[in-house]
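Sample pair:
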Amino acid sequence: MALQLWETLKEAITLYTGLSPATFFTGVALALAIYYLMSTLFRSSDNHHERSRAFEEEVEPLPPPVQVGEITEEELKAYDGTDPEKPLLMAIKGQIYDVSQSRGFYGPGGPYALFAGKDASRALAKLSFEEKDLTGDISGLGPFELDALQDWEYKFMTKYVKVGTVKKTVPVTEGSSTGEPAEGTDHSVEKRAENGSAESHAENGTTENAEKE
């Protein structure tokens, strides 16, 4: 009975499709495999989008950058990322940028964490991670290092928001340390010179009078 049904099925397949039974069943199997594969891909894509939306909902949006104005290098150290309530700041060539969006790179535990809260211009120019190069002093750098620093600055300008500048320290001179202005010293020198000149004229006049007598 089963054999008779199979023979009837083969004849029907050949009659209605023009294909041999082997070719017909191969095509059916291939179509089922493609359907299963496509349904799996679409289902995994939907799950991925759902996970992405859930992750975005969990991550809090970053607050807008806050302008800090002109601050000292010592004050800049407070924004190195150790305090999660403060923005993550970094300076290059005296210009301070908010790099909070790249906390994975510049925040604690990141590959460039030692640059945060500092003006690391020299270190960036030299591609150095040494403590002595974590400074904004770029004197003595070569042309290639200055070009590298320019590339870093352009990257910061286009990617991050500038929020302030680093206050430059003015070296204290010897005159200002004693509290006497330099102009006062110059005036006293000029006064002594004038007194010396007057005394010289007086001596010359006395000598001429003595010779006449």
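The first strand starts at residue 69 and ends at 71.
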